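Aspartic proteinase oryzasin-1
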Amino acid sequence: MGTGRVALVLLLATALLQALLAAPAEGLVRIPLKKRPADGNGGLHDARRRGFLGGSSNAAAAALNKAEAEEEGDIVALKNYLNAQYYGEIGIGTPQQRFTVIFDTGSSNLWVPSSKCYLSMACYFHERYKAGQSNSYKKNGKPASIRYGTGAISGYFSLDSVKIGDVVVSNQDFIEATREPGITFMVAKFDGILGLGFKEISVGAAVPVWYNMVKQGLVDDPVFSFWFNRHAGEGQGGEIVFGGIDPNHYKGNHTYVPVTRKGYWQFDMGDVLIGGKSTGFCASGCAAIADSGTSLLTGPTAIITQINEKIGAAGVVSQECKAVVSQYGQRIIDQLLAETHPSKICSSVGLCTFDGAHGVSAGIRSVVDDEAGESNGLFNEAMCNACEMAVVWIQNQLAQNQTQDLVLQYINQLCERLPSPMGESSVDCNRVASMPDIAFTIGGRKFTLKPEQYILKEGEGPAAQCISGFTAMDIPPPRGPLWILGDIFMGAYHTVFDYGNLKVGFAEAA
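Structure:
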């Protein structure tokens, strides 16, 4: 999810799915999730905006849970909806106060609503931490705030014990949120977020929960892993294992890549292929992060638009894009043919400035790094971004020996497929079977997503609704271009976060 970047996980629906937290073996915390069929109320778009606020289990379900508890150990309910959310319960304080949280590898803080949250309606829809009722509470009081793309929370730090599965982390710093503005947090099914990222992005320099689990000897191995079941309503919804890896949930061997930048679980990624053909966009390398707190798969607009064009996703016409193609398309072609470096073309035609390494537009600010300052200049950001996308697209088409007329026609088609402002793109459910595979090169291996894996579908027959699992977000250098491989990718590939060896591993999910 990540401070200061678009929290895509907050844009999607949250509703009922059941899951379990089984008692761990020594030095290992196993968090299995069990799904129930998604609530059928409302359409996909309504679900994303409103959320589902019902959902306490009935007596029969409670009896079933009790029987399973006797067989498997401690059980904690986890909820999910449409394969877009995976989250579950933790306990804070003595005696425990229970909260539903997202286990988020894209942020590093733990926060839950506070009983002192009086002015935000969102707090009244969720469980609130009551410091006065915990015997293990310790006062801190340091102010804290976390800003997301769809809202923000603010409050202050407190100290208490945190129970995850069957282990208890003592003296854990967390944020009591006293303000949660915006509709997003009000309709969210989860109460808070438990960050599993590195301390480098922890607000207030708070020690993350995972760090304390390792430091306090609560896990044998400094490793945790995720398995997400993408078949809604069929058995377990997924599993998080703290301290190890469950061999039952992957096939073959993991491909590991080193963490290149601590903060998010960031690593280097290679070429992106559409239907087996190179896009060339990341042939020389791109940065990527594995993020359990993001539902979809996010990448630069230039390549996401190409993907959505190939799968027939309906986007919004960008007048800036069409204007660039109309006014500057031929000049871009001429400069590419003259072997002008692609990074200099948009500045040479007057749409971007050039900082010595790449083009930058006026007003660009990193959505990942809050400290990134605005670039000076007098040029329009949208036109600069459109120009840089056009350069990528045209370069790729020229490499395929397309005629110049066909290149410009194709670029105009891509302009038609630019995503909507919210990043959503709908597709025809009847065309899913004919859509191309999309592959990502990681550690020299191609990780392929099939259409049924990257399309989110609700309903059946004429009432079915489908959306593309790809959404665009442009993060400028030096942090970007950055890909965010969320639940769409992690559902297809079992993911290991090796904190001890600073690497991330992927294997086909079983």
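The two ends are 26 Å apart (CA to CA).
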